[in-house]
Amino acid sequence: MTTPSSTQGSVLAQALAEANIQSQVLLPDDADYTAREQSYWSQQARLKPACIVLPRSASEVSTIVKTLANKQVKFAVRSGGHTPHAGSNNIDGGVTIDLSLLNWTRFDAASETVDIGPGGRWRDVYGELDKHGRVVAGGRNGTVGVGGLILGGGISFSTGQRGFACDDVISFEVVLADGRIVTATAGEYSDLYFALKGGSSNFGIVTNYKMQALKSDGIFGGLKIYSKQVTPEATEALVRFTASVESDPDSHMLWFHTYTAKTYVEQPDFKDIVVVIAVAQVAGVADAPAYKGFKDLPAIMDTCKQTTVLGGASEYDVAPGNNQSTFYTATFANDVRIAAKATQLHERLVADLKGLIPDGDFTTQCLLQPLPKVYGETSARSGGNVMGVQNQRVDGLLFVAIVLLKTAAQQAFAYPRIRAWVEELKAYAATIENGNLDWVYLNYADGSQDPLRSYGAENVRKMKLAAAKYDPDAVFQKLCAGGFKISHVAE
After folding, report:
1. How far apart are CA 114 and CA 109, in angstroms?
2. What is the pLDDT of residue 342?
3. Between 231-244 and 336-356, two packed helices, what is the crossing angle to 10 degrees?
4. Which of 128, 193, 221, 437 would bridge 331 by S-S if both were Cys, CB 3.0 to 4.6 A apart?
5. C-beta neighbour count of 266 within 10 angstroms
């Protein structure tokens, strides 16, 4: 059966063929088209592009971009497809440029650098580098794509020592809107290089990331899971841990107050809130002093062990896909009162969702992560990035509300309550000196949020100048309209 979408896709496919593009083009009636759409992490991201094109090289990306720009065809760009909200990495009716075939990890021993394709997943990267006893300062979840994480800044297990993932990029190979392929470094195209370090998809399509290779003999890591009864003590331990990062930058942690239907104990109907900490001690030190506050808390389960970054990134995948998924983020002072309020509001949301979903088959996460001042200071020492985190006034906590549901009706019920949770938490934080911090982490932001503006006026100006210089016709603002666009940020 021929649908309007498949007809439009055929027309676009013909236009790409006339441009002598050898890339694979998938139409809506193709089985592989359906498979690619279903591979998006969240249900909302699964749209109906007229066709999906899968380039195999930077030169093919160049031809595709020039062709679409000349014909004024709207398009989206996909790396791993993990951003949950609709339109960030896919499109209805236009062309989705799927970078999944640009998947390589090439370690160069002479220079101790790694070339990484944007279409890989971090588990692929770490799996290859593990053969050489190396890692990079990349994603902590092995299923996340390379490109989106780095362009949004990227927090790694090594952020205390290295800054953000984007700070460890030596060069970006970029296809610009006019089809030129340039390599942006600190010395060449330096304004573009700076803007790409957290500036997302506003300037071109990155087709290779050259990163610094890091020697690794393994890490000590895993998950520790506690009953909700220890929430007050675990919250205090989180705040103390965050204050200690400057003196122990090798110790990393994510802290979850989470409701899950997953069985963590030998009770088949166990559906409740638990506290989970994800541990990653990158020097391999077991029970490092930074985690002291958690040591005496009785754990339901403890999987911590000597492992690798690959093992840690594989185990960290605690948010299942194929759901109606919402992320909503904010940053706060490292204050136990704010963290406690976040968990209290989370419990209220869980109660509301249990009333709607009697079988309790859903997942929510109140995720709090250390965001000490030293993260931004470390970034600044390595040349800085466009995110403005180096301007942070006090040690902070990066908060994200995560809700994973089965149906669109459940999502419609939950979404305003998720926003209310965050707004009420921000209102409470405003009663505490420096309680609210400016930064909105792009990789955790809901589509309604404005992360680029949170980078500060000077960085907004630099991004606008770079976008105007390298994309004067605003192809990546108007035709590639998904995601967070610098043209939408008021100065």
Report:
1. 9
2. 98
3. 130
4. 437
5. 6
pLDDT at 316: 82
> How many of the other CB atoms lie within 10 Å of CB of 45?
23
Q: What is the pLDDT of residue 6?
A: 57
Scored b (16 or more CB within 10 A) or e, 293-330 reads bbeebebeeeebeebbbbbbbbbbebbebebbbbbbbb
Closest CA to 24 of 105, 101, 104, 120: 101
User: What pLDDT, on a 0 to 100 scale, did the predictor assign at position 23?
Assistant: 80
Is this structure's pTM higher than 0.85? yes
**Residue 407 φ then ψ, to 5°:** -130, 160
Amino acid at 406: K
Instruction: Give the amino acid at 132.
Output: H
Q: Residues of the chain whose pLDDT is less than 50?
A: 1-2, 264-269
Question: Distance (Å, rounded) from C-alpha 80 to C-alpha 98?
Answer: 9
Calculate the CA 105 to chain-centre distance.
20
Which neighbouring-strand residues pair with 328? 401
- Structure tokens, 72: 């004024």
For 210-221, write each residue's pLDDT tens digit. 999 999 999 999
Structure token pair of residue 406? 């089965």
Q: 353: which 2 tokens?
A: 């969702």
